[in-house]
Structures are given as structure tokens and as C-alpha cells.
Amino acid sequence: MAEIVKKAEEQRYAPAEIEPKWQARWDADAALYAAEEHDCGKPKYYCLEMLPYPSGALHMGHVRNYAIGDALARFMWMRGYNVLHPMGWDAFGLPAENAAINNNVPPREWTLRNIAAMRKQMRRMGLSYDWSREVTTCLPDYYRWNQWFFLKMFEAGLAYRKKSKVNWCPKCCTVLANEQVIDGRCWRHEDTLVELRDLTQWFLRITKYADELLHGLDRLDGWPEKVRTMQRNWIGRSEGANIDFAVAGAAEKITVFTTRVDTIFGATSVQVAPEHPVAELFAASDPALAQQIEEMLRQQTLAREAGDIGAIEKHGVATGHFAVNPFNGKNVPIWVANYILADYGTGAIMSVPAHDERDFEFANKYGLPIKRVIVSATDTNELALPYTGEDDAILIDSGAWTGELCLEAQTKMAAFAQEGGFGSATVTYRLKDWGVSRQRYWGTPIPMVYCEACGVDSPVPVRESDLPILLPEQIDISGEGGSPLGRVPEFVNTTCPQCGGPARRETDTMDTFVDSSWYFYRYTDARNDAAPFDSAKANYWFPIDQYIGGVEHAILHLIYSRFWTRVMRDLGMVAGDEPAERMFTQGMVIKDGAKMSKSKGNVVSPDLMIERYGADATRMYALFAAPPDRDLEWQEEGVAGISRFLSRVFRFARKHAPNVGSPLDARPSVPLDAELSSSLRRKLHQTIAKVTQDFDGRWHFNTSIAAIMELVNDLTAASADLFVAGDEYDGLVKEILESLTLLLTPFCPFLAAEIWEEIGGQGVAFRTAWPSSNPDFTRLNAIEIPVQINGKLVTVVVVPNGSDEEELKAAALGDSKVWSRVEGKTVVKVIVVKGKLVNLVVK
Q1: How does strand 434-435 pair with strand 423-428?
Q2: By the 8 A CB rule, do 161 and 153 touch?
Q3: What is the mean pLDDT of residues 391-419?
Q4: Is residue 488 a contact partner of residue 475, using CB atoms and an 8 Å limit?
Q5: Which residues of 792-819 are buried (b: 16+ CB within 10 A; e: fewer)?
Q6: Side by side, which strands form the sheet with 44-49?
Q7: Considering the chain, what is the average pLDDT of its residues?
Q8: Which residues pair with 445 in a beta bridge?
Q9: pTM, 2 dp
Q10: 106, 100 in Cβ contact below 8 A?
Q11: 176-235: pLDDT as tens digits
Q12: Which residues contact 766 (CB under 8 A, 6 or more apart)?
């Protein structure tokens, strides 16, 4: 009995023993995860997950993201690629200041302490990062290059100052980021309403690249369509015309942008944003109007803070003043409307309620006239309003343009406005220049000074040789009254680089999106102290082959990084236009019905899961519980289930590893079972083909792991009869154990390393060649099924003979070519002709 217990304990899967053992070995080998030089002769593969903010601890949402990238990196190493898989820290920002104030700990100390803790967690998870390239954005060796880039952009006219609307706390006497505005009030003073003020701020001229950023999306075939759509909408290119409406009885004019100048004879009002100069002019002599405008501004602030300005309930107020329509000379009332934004278009619109749904709603609410000026040339019925027109729409009651097709009239009327000096054809963008000024401490100091002798309105750049402009470490950031840096005389007071006289430094710091706009280039040459990076190294590694991160970063971070890449291209630093060839947005981890996050109070610590089940089970669950692009509903029992599966694998390997290469006469002999041998080999090679296809396609890691589980089920079922015969079985057990271990390596590297050592594998498992499938086995019991989209052949999938309708649908929808064509669209119907074809009806 004691011998049985001892034998069982020897075969027990104990991740608490296995994982630290292998992590210690891997930590001791600095070259294990290191990328090789560009002349190594291997194809390159740059695999990157978005760098995290060092909040102090990872949760399972992080683990899912990093497990995806780690599995991919290990797979590509096994495929013979030179892999770059780095990690760093997005270490500046508002949360560190909040924590420092709350905990009375300097932001630098708090941040670096968190980085150390999270790095330890990542190592414990067995993540394959090249730590020799680690980047920490709050350290001077990194942020000096933020300052260097700023100087280069200032020199090129891409960095400039202008007045803009900002959130202002009158009690703090400082500007607040949008994140610091909660329900329209200061995050530090719940009794203080935030105001909008005009302040001079620094901007980066991203609009110079607006068209290029827009058209570049057409070439990013490896990006999710939803991400490209979000960026297109954010850039928001619109072709139309600017038209000047004179203010009746005054010298001012209101310029409106319209995409439908052909409808101008139907304009029954002009509406301006609450902060439009004309609105401010009228409010100066009308206290009631001023009060209503103030309320509108507050509504806009609340809507922006909620992240949905488009959902604001539409309100307006008549000013009592009129504008003159330059096409017919008629007066139309001027209104102030809360849904008109000062920073979009010209901050003013002409309202044509008969032919615009939003204007129609507004006109009905306030009893404004509705005048039809467009009709259908082919439909004699009077179509319901609002009617926006079709290709054959024509104008009525539109002066000289009556009877013309709308599309033709648009060009002619814009030209007429230009000839008359009251308008012109133009293109406008929703995208605005990037405001990078932050009146906060924990960020990159902006490397500019102000000198009275040289003109305070003409900021002077610091000398490159004086970089970095260091952020003072020991200062009081809890006091009220403006930028903390402004209260540090030794920082503020300096010498003008231009004239040598006394000057003061800029006390604004940079938006932290600056840090994350180019960090992935620094990874290619992270210890360079003479330049941000070496161009030859960057050009070898770029573009990133696979970038992985949350869809919440689809707009700002990715647009800013694409902008930054183009600036570096124009500076001669990089050869490419785009930072990443392929982009993947993983699904969220959901717990208690909400996204897992510290702010929701529903985080699950991977440390706890590792203590209970091991790192391999924890990360493998994150890959198995749902397709990586779908949300994952957290269930701890799922981790426990994966742990039980890994235990089965471990016991199976332990049981049969001694048979590999052991003397034949030491084993009992049984008759050769050719059918069993063939069946297991077929299953093995079909599993290899399936997992390989999943890595090369849509990353259905959940089905990959499921296929490995099926293989293990078959192996354990045959275990009693297998691996006890002669040479043929000896070769089979070696093939099965080696291939099974290598298949598991991307998903559970600790266990795979242990088994690899157990069976006498040579070298490191994840640096061993990926197993290849034998077509003679994968073709057995398999058929080819054509897949069509709207009747056109797209691809052919290989499925087991006899697959049912649901299996055929899954195979078709899971194919990478099909997926890339239907993502973001609606699959109306899937038609299956069993054994012959699958056709997807898509719109």
C-alpha cells in the first residue's frame, strides 16, 4: 500500500514545485527570450502587447492579453522566426498623482514600486519577455526623447501654442483633464462646478496628416474593420462649402460649414455653439442669454465627461438677432444650440429642417419654419419630410438653380459663393489638433522657456544639449493653486538659450499619450543614449507584425501612434508609414456583469489563481474559456478544470516516459495492434494540423486546446494497451509524447518544459521546431468543403468526413479568409449543403 501511495505522489502534478523550478532556470538564462541581430538569417517577427499602466497589480484582464501574445511569440520561435517580444511601462499620468496625494508617497516611488511588483507577477506567469529591452516612460532615459521629438516638431511647425477651451477648477486654480471632471465637478472638490476657460495650450498639428491617416486605413488589411471604422469616423472627413452669413445690423459674420450647399434656400435659421464669438457678443448685453449659454456649456461638459456628446438632449435659445442668407438676401433668426460644438467645423450651422433629420427635430420642437427645396425628379408624390434626396433629386424654389440636379448644383453654388466673396468649397475634419498641455506634475516637462527680452509670446526652445529637462523629484503636489512645477523656483527660473538673459520654464507637462505614441520603436534599441533609436534597427523590425490590445485604445492611442510614425518618417528616422501591420483587439474579461477592473471592484488576482492552480492553468484558462476576440465570463471553476486536465497530461507523460528508448526486453510483449496505432497517429496529426491552422488563422486557441484535450482523451483511453510492444510502438510513443509536449508549449510552458525534460527532449522546448503534420494522416477521414460569400467562392475548408451542419458552419466562420471578409458586417443566413458547400449571405 505504501508503495502505491509513493508511486501516486511521484506522479502528482505539483505546479507549486514545477513552476518556480523552471522560472529560476529561465531567469538565469538572459539570452533565452532575447531577440537576435538583424543579420541572423532568420525571418523576423515583432510580437507586441500594449504596455500597461503600473497600477500595482495585474488582474485576469491583463493575463488574458499577455497570454495571447506569449502563446503567439512561443509559436513563432518554434516556427524558426527571430522574435522580438518586449515589455515596458506606461508610467506617467494622473493615477500616480492621485495615489501620491492619497498615500503621501512621491509618484516616482509609488510608480517604480508598482513596476517591480508587476514585473514579478509577469515572471511568475512565465511570460516570454526580453527584459533587456524594458522601457519605463517616467525615467529620464526615455522622456528626454519625448522632449527631443517636441523640439523637432516645434522646428517643423508641428508644435505650436494657441488659446483653447479647458476645464478649470476655480478652487484648485488649475486646469483639469476630462478624467478629473466628475458629474461636472472637480474630482477633489465635489462642491465646485468646473468652468470652461480659454487658456493658451500646446498643440501638435496632427491635422496636417489627416488625409494621409484616413487613406492609410485602406491599406491596413490586418486591422479589425471595427477599429478602422472607428478611426475613419474620428477623422471625419467631410467635403462641402463654407458660407458666410452676415449678422444683420452688425459688422460680424457667421461662417457655416455645410455638405449640402444646394439646400441653402431652405435654411430657416442659423445655429451657433454656446461659446461661438457671436453668441458671446450677444450674451454680453443680455444677462438672460448669458445664463442660458452657461447652462448649455455645463451640459456639454457633462456629456463629454460621459463620453457621449451625441446623446445630449437638444436645446436652443433664440438670440433675437438675425443673419442674412447671402444667396437670397433674406433674414433668418440666429439661435444658440447646445448640441453645436465650437471645435467641430466652424461652430455654426445653417438649419434646413425640410432636408435634415436633426434640423427637422429641432424646428418642430421650437416651431421654426420648414421649407422644402428638394424633390424627386422621378417620384411625383410629395415625399415625407425630412427628405434628403436621391441621385436624381432636383432643386425647387432655389433661384437660378431651380430644376438642377442637386449634385451638379452643389459644385456650381460653391463656385458662385467663391466668386461673390462669401464662401468657397472646402474640406473639413472632425479630427482636431492634439492638445498636449497638462497642468500636472507627473509627466514629461515641455522643453520650452519664456523670455521677456525675446518676447513672452515667442517661446524659445531649449538646446538639445541641455536635454533632458529633469522633472524635480521631491516637490509638494498636494497644494492648491496651479501647476505644481510652477511652485518650484529652481525649476522655473532658468537662462534663455537665445539671449542668455533670465527666463522661466514652461510648467506644463506633456499628455501621457505622447509616451505611448512611439515606445515600440524604443524597444528596438532601448539602451541608446545618443538617439531615440538606431534607424537601421527600427527599419529591420518594423512594422510590428502583430500588435495586441484592447479596443478602447482603437482611436486615440492608435491614431497618435500612426501620426508619430509619419512624423518620424518625415524626419528621416524610419522608412515605413504605419507602426503595425496587424492589429488584434482581445475581448474583455467579465465578472459580475461588468468589465473586470479595479474601479469596478471586481478584479481577480492572478496571484491567488496561481497559488491555487498554478500559472499554466491560469493562463491556459484565459485562452480556453472563449475565442480571444470575444468577451470571457470569469468562472474560477474553469481554472480548476484546466488544472485537472494538466494533471491528467502530467500523469500520462510520467507513466509512459520511461518507455521511450527503454530496452525492449524490459517490457512485456503483446500482439501488434495496427488499427490502434493508425488511429492514434491519425488523431495526433489531425491535432497538429488543427492547432497549426488556428495559429495561422483566426487564433481559435479555445478550439486548439479543445483539440489537444480530445487527443489526450484518446491517448488515456488507449493507455492500458499501448506502449508495451516492440519497435513500432516505441517509435509511436516517442512521437506522441514529443509532439504532445510541443503542442502544449505555447499554452502551458512550465508543464511542457517539465515533460520535455522527463522524456529526454533536447534543448529548450519552445526553441524546438514546431511539429509538422503528415498529410497522409490528416487527409484520412477528411473532406474539402468550398465556402462562398454571396455565391462567390472565398476559400476551401478541410473538415472531418461526416461533419454535421453546425460543425460545417463553425469551420466556415472560423476560417481566416472568411472572417476577414465578414467582420463588421451582418451574416444574414448560412446555407449548408451537407458534404458539398457552405454559402454565407452577408450584407
Answers
A1: unpaired
A2: no
A3: 95
A4: yes
A5: eebeebebeeebeeeebbbbbbbbeebe
A6: 82-84, 44-49, 546-549, 583-585
A7: 89
A8: 509
A9: 0.85
A10: yes
A11: 766 567 777 887 777 788 887 888 999 999 999 999 999 999 999 999 999 999 999 999
A12: 74, 77, 78, 128, 745, 746, 749, 752
Going from the C-alpha of 842 to that of each of 52, 682, 726, 794, 839, the distances in angstroms are: 37, 36, 55, 13, 9
How many other CB atoms sit within 10 Å of the CB of residue 234?
Answer: 17
Q: Decide if 677 contacts 732 (C-beta within 8 A).
A: yes
CA proximity to 95, closest of 59, 54, 58:
54
Q: What is the distance between the alpha carbons of residues 100 and 478, in angstroms, rounded to a whole number?
A: 9
Cell 468589465 appears where?
595
Residue (of 118, 42, 25, 131) closest to 83 by Cα position: 42
Residue 418, all three cell numbers = 467663391
Task: Using alpha carbons only, give the angle 244, 245, 249 rounded to the nearest 5 degrees.
Answer: 135
Alpha-carbon gap, residue 125 to 62, rounded angstroms: 11
Please identify which residue in the block is written with the cell numbers 436621391. Answer: 390
Kindly report which listed range (308-322, 423-437, 702-716) carries the lowest average pLDDT score.
Answer: 308-322
Q: Are 125 and 616 in contact (CB under 8 A)?
A: no
- Residue type at position 512: T
Summarize pLDDT for 291-302 with one digit per residue, the tens: 999 888 887 766
Per-residue pLDDT band at 8 (split at 50, 70, 90): very low
Q: What is the dihedral of CA 547, 548, 549, 555, to 10 degrees?
A: 30
3 state SS of 196: strand
Query: Which residues does 409 contact at the CB level (< 8 Å), separation at least 6?
Result: 262, 395, 398, 401
- What does R_g of the chain's alpha carbons equal in angstroms? 32
Q: At what angle do helices 15-28 and 606-613 cross, to 10 degrees?
A: 120
Phi then psi for residue 348, to 5 deg, are -155, 150
Phi, psi values for residue 275, rounded to 5° = -100, 15
- Predicted confidence band at 603 (pLDDT cuts at 50, 70, 90)? confident
Q: Is 565 helix (H, G, I), strand (E, B) or coil?
A: helix
Three-class SS state of 785: strand
Question: How does residue 482 score in pLDDT terms, banded at 50, 70 and 90?
Answer: low
DSSP three-state, residue 520 = helix
Strands (E), 194-259: 195-204, 238-247, 253-258
Contact 841, 829 (CB under 8 A): yes
Interatomic CA distance for residues 814 and 809, integer angstroms: 8
Give the H or E element holding residue 393.
strand 393-395
**Type and span of the H or E element at 758:** helix 749-758
The three-state secondary structure class of 197 is: strand
CB 137 within 8 A of CB 92: yes
Distance CA 588, CA 295 (A): 37
**What distance in Å separates the CA atoms of residue 840 and residue 254, rounded to the nearest whole number?**
51
Name the 3-class secondary structure at 483: coil
**Residues 86-115 pLDDT 10s:** 999 999 988 888 788 888 889 999 999 999
Give CA–CA dist 800/807, Å, rounded.
9
